[in-house]
Specification:
The chain is mainly alpha-helical. It has helices at 2-32, 39-42, 48-72, 75-81, 106-116, 130-133, 147-156, 166-178, 183-200, 206-211, 217-225, 227-231; strands spanning 88-91, 96-99, 140-141, 158-161. Among the domains are: 72-160, no CATH class; 166-231, no CATH class. It comes from Daphnia magna.
Length: 245
């Protein structure tokens, strides 16, 4: 009986995730496209058959890479240093492990999990304040468990994550953290913008050096690919490679 209930619970979770994903996609499209734009202009050029073939190939490649990774990765060392476990959210009730990736709609997926786990006083994920979903005490992370508990959950819980084209993710991070008027963007301009301008801009003005408010995308990319940045391991999670989260 317990096995049947667990299966039904997982099926329900998968349905909820799928519906929310479609809903979120519609919201993004509505926000991105002009209301009076011709529909045919924004329809994907590829046929459904072509898209299905691409997805099949991607799944095959992901499976092959994961197989190679399993042969090389020492799970004991991962559990011991915990570096790759702090981005994995644990849902005990539904037996889920969600590895969140910043700039891949992780705010909305966290909101959904808050509703699913009963951590919000609403059934509408988008009614939850974004900052509330990122508070450290909202979710329990996998790195908070003992080694034996971690191994059990990795073996028995359903694991999932969402990814995005790396270049699109970089553009999104730049726009969100350097181009918007928000307290978060103010922090990033002060913390990283001033450093980037000082490092990569010739004859930078005093205002730019003191505020870091006008970083260009070219300068941001220079910072990302600079070997000195990589050597300092100075990658914020919003542009850190997905494999390192």
């Amino acid at each position: 009986m317990r096995v049947v209930l667990l299966r039904r619970s997982k099926q329900l979770v998968l349905v909820l995730l799928s519906v929310f994903g479609l809903w979120l996609g519609v919201i993004v499209m509505n926000d991105s496209f002009p209301a009076n734009a011709g529909t045919e202009k924004y329809l994907p050029e590829k046929s459904i058959t072509t898209l299905e073939t691409e997805q099949t190939q991607r799944k095959k490649l992901a499976k092959e890479v994961c197989t190679l990774s399993q042969k090389k990765t020492n799970l004991d060392s991962v559990i011991k240093d915990r570096v790759l476990l702090d981005h994995i959210i644990v849902d005990e009730e539904h037996r889920l492990l969600y590895c969140y990736v910043p700039k891949v709609a992780c705010t909305n997926w966290k909101r959904l999990l808050m509703v699913l786990m009963g951590k919000a006083n609403t059934t509408n994920p988008l009614a939850i304040v974004a900052d509330d979903s990122h508070r450290l005490n909202v979710f329990r992370r996998l790195d908070n468990y003992t080694g034996e508990e971690i191994r059990y959950r990795l073996d028995h819980f359903m694991k999932f994550m969402f990814i995005r084209h790396p270049f699109e993710r970089l553009v999104s991070a730049f726009r969100n953290k350097f181009g918007q008027n928000s307290s978060s963007a103010d922090y990033f301009r002060s913390r990283y913008g001033r450093q980037i301008i000082k490092q990569y801009r010739t004859n930078a003005s005093e205002e730019s050096l003191s505020r870091g408010h006008d970083v260009t995308f070219r300068e941001f990319v220079q910072y990302i690919i600079d070997p000195r940045t990589v050597a300092r391991a100075n990658f914020n999670e919003h542009w850190r490679p997905m494999v390192d989260l």
